[in-house]
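Supplementary Text 2. Reproducibility record for the structural model of the 478-residue chain.

All settings were left at their defaults, and a single model was retained for analysis rather than an ensemble. We include the record here because the model underlies the residue-level annotations in Supplementary Table 4.
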Amino acid sequence: MTRTRFAPSPTGYMHVGNLRTALYAYLTARHDGGQFILRIEDTDRERYVEGAVDIIYNTLKENGMTWDEGPDVGGEYGPYVQSERMGMFKDYAEQLVEKGMAYRCFCTEERLAELHEQQKASGEAVGHYDRRCRCLSCEEIQAHLDAGDPYVIRQKMPTEGVTAFDDIIYGHIEVQNAELEDQILIKTDGMPTYNFANVVDDHLMAISHVIRGSEYLSSTPKYQLLYQAFGWDVPVYIHCPPVMKDEHNKLSKRNGDASYQDLVAQGYLSEAVLNYLLLLGWSPKGEEEIFSLEDMIKIWDPSRINKSPAIFDIVKLRAINAAHISRMSDEEFTKLAEPWIRQTVKSEIDMELLCRNLKPRCEILSDIPERVAFIDNMPETIDPELYKNKKFKTDADTALTALKTLEPALAAITDWTKDAIYEACLAAAQKLEVKNGWLLYPLGIALSGQRSTPGGGTDLAAIIGREKTLERIRKAIG
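Retained model, structure tokens:
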């Protein structure tokens, strides 16, 4: 059975790259009828943020990505919080020591610092360990232990040949073993390193597919050697390209780039963000790009993940968000839009009509307050240039004629509805023997003071009401 996991660290808001990794892991499991596991990796206490675990839970739930096993739902492979699993890791490392595939390293921090200075002075790559403790005799090791000297446990890497592995995205990869450092598995405080805990936990939780960022490709030979050392089955590797803000810089919450929570706060729909993240480094068959989560599960194929870095394109995200808004029912959109409208509009209006007009013109919800601000905050004066329109052949002079004709026609309406307003305007246009647009374009300008509005003149009149409509027409006439 396909078993994937999402194993975030609770260090703050949900970065869009992390959410994309969660999505790809979720889709891989669900497409195959498998299981999706949530594991919280909270051992980095310096970066731990209070409340971040709830953010992880809420973000996944908001996006419909339910998990089969996890800290809150349990499961037969728990516990699912890494800090609650600490007791087992040293035992596994000691197994490798007994097999001769790992060793205790007693080098002090001072000795390692001196080694790094020597490497720097001689022009070597700084930071690699010289394997001094790899060949200590049994007597030397025992002497250190008897003296109570602190130690780390290092993996004994092969020094010749190659380590090879296969990745769904990057294919067959081989690394010269001579390039691999004897990595630390257990630190002096008995805590495991991230890489070691990851391998042990993935094995014990029967994870079949490991999906993570391509920055872990360089560590994968070390993972591979650990699986081989223990005699464990190796999972399927799927490494995803990084999410970039531009050609040279990765998208990063440390650099203040937008998190998932930021995007939702800006008025993007969660389903649109998820849809965009699907396409951020993955391409479907065919031309369709707008998908629900159910659609994604059906069409998912991890082999279609691209190797190239994915650049976050806010313009495309806006377009996808607009497409999802257009698919909503009028009732759903009104429920979402009204709080944004009420940021700038406090007066009584025809909310349903306004929202029906806004929906096909709305890309993100945060655009709404400014677009409708004219309803309560009309500019003191209207620039005469706004009345100019080549298509309708209007200008300030024709607008004056149009508005003087419309004022009595609209004032005579007793049943103030969109249809009644339109009929009155149509009759006025016929009376003047002009096209409807010649008459209605100036009406829209007079009622809003701007070219781009959520609806034409008759819709605006119906939205803002009879009193405000007549007041603004009379003011525009002067």
